[in-house]
């Protein structure tokens, strides 16, 4: 799974059916078993997907919800296609990605036979024109059956007749990850976040935004209550990881691995970071944790919901 995330992060630098039919794929209805040696530090693995097939569309106001209920893709009445992280039922939703096509009321999105996922103005179509945004997934790979997927990890991807140079589908590159950040080990070497990764606890979201700022948002009203201050630093892809020495740090993945933020918790091998249900983001010693003590650093955002 992490191999895909790494390549996807790199690529981001280079580079008429009823809604009732948008249901999770029944062939993979149950979560799959994890990898051997997987721990709570590692992402779960689940094959469930909510699908949009060729010829289906998202009309204004319609949406797809991912199988875990963590995200939804909404074709808004203003013409913008938006991927949201869902919080409390009926409460604030956090925008993770959007097509930037607002200002086009009545626009709709559809997956075409040629493998392209397109947003058309009201009244537009493949025959009449009016396309205002697309994934550019049309191409020569006609042996592939096009499909658009809102996956268990919250990400939206389109498999069309054209993939990128890595052989990967188009994607919003917005992946939900675990709330516990641990140092990598020989069996689990990909325990780090990239730009676009996010996690949630009972009260907050924590996301590395497109501007490379790590920001915590309160679920009750969407207010930003903490950030790393790493926006606007001139780099393209940010990586956050827990070092073997116990330091939680963020660095420029594409630019010489320059560290741009650190919790300054080194000399504590085995330390880990945890996004808690009380809204605090904490680095603990190896044997520490909620109710046990051993905090080395914290965001200071507990009980602000």
Key features of this structure:
305 residues; Agglutinin, subunit A; elongated; mainly beta; four-stranded antiparallel sheet
Task: Characterise the protein shown here.
The protein is mainly beta. It has two domains: 16-171, Bulb-type lectin domain (Agglutinin, subunit A), CATH 2.90.10; 180-298, Bulb-type lectin domain (Agglutinin, subunit A, Orthogonal Prism), CATH 2.90.10. The chain contains one helix and 24 strands. The protein has one helix spanning 2-13; strands at residues 49-53, 57-58, 63-65, 71-75, 81-86, 93-98, 108-111, 117-125, 129-134, 147-151, 156-159, 170-171, 180-182, 193-194, 198-200, 204-208, 214-218, 224-227, 238-242, 248-252, 259-262, 272-275, 281-289, 293-298. The strands form six sheets. Strands 1-10-11-12 form a four-stranded antiparallel sheet, with no helix packed on it. Strands 2-7-8-9 form a four-stranded antiparallel sheet, with no helix packed on it. A four-stranded antiparallel sheet has the order 3-4-5-6, with no helix packed on it. Strand 3 (63-65) and strand 4 (71-75) form a beta hairpin. The longest helix has 12 residues, at 2-13. It is elongated. Mean pLDDT is 87; it is low at 1-34.
Write the topology of this structure.
Elements: H1 2-13, E1 49-53, E2 57-58, E3 63-65, E4 71-75, E5 81-86, E6 93-98, E7 108-111, E8 117-125, E9 129-134, E10 147-151, E11 156-159, E12 170-171, E13 180-182, E14 193-194, E15 198-200, E16 204-208, E17 214-218, E18 224-227, E19 238-242, E20 248-252, E21 259-262, E22 272-275, E23 281-289, E24 293-298
Antiparallel strand pairs: 1-10, 2-7, 3-4, 4-5, 5-6, 7-8, 8-9, 10-11, 11-12, 13-22, 14-19, 15-16, 16-17, 17-18, 19-20, 20-21, 22-23, 23-24
């Amino acid at each position: 799974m992490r191999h895909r995330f790494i390549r996807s992060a790199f690529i981001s630098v280079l580079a008429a059916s009823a809604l009732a039919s948008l249901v999770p794929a029944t062939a993979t209805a149950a979560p799959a078993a994890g990898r051997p040696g997987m721990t709570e530090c590692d992402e779960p693995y689940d094959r469930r997907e909510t699908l949009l097939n060729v010829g289906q569309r998202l009309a204004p106001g319609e949406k797809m919800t991912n199988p875990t209920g963590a995200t939804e893709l909404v074709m808004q009445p203003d013409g913008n296609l938006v991927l949201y992280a869902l919080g409390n039922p009926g409460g604030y939703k956090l925008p993770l990605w959007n097509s930037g096509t607002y200002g086009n009321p009545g626009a709709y999105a559809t997956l075409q036979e040629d493998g392209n996922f397109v947003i058309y103005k009201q009244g537009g179509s493949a025959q009449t024109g009016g396309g205002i945004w697309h994934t550019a997934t049309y191409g020569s790979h006609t042996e592939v059956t096009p499909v658009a997927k809102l996956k268990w990890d919250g990400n939206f991807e389109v498999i069309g007749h054209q993939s990128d140079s890595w052989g990967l589908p188009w994607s919003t590159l917005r992946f939900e990850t675990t709330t516990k950040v641990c140092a990598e080990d020989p069996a689990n070497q990909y325990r780090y976040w990239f730009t676009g990764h996010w996690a949630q606890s009972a009260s907050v979201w924590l996301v590395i935004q497109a501007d490379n700022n790590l920001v915590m948002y309160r679920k009750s009203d969407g207010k930003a209550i903490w950030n790393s201050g790493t926006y606007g630093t001139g780099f393209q892809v940010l990586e956050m990881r827990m070092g073997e020495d116990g330091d939680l740090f963020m660095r420029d993945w594409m630019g010489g691995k320059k560290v741009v933020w650190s919790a300054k918790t080194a000399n504590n091998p085995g330390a880990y970071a945890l996004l808690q249900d009380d809204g605090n983001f904490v680095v603990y010693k190896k044997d520490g944790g909620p109710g046990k003590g051993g905090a080395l650093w914290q965001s200071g955002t507990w009980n602000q919901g």
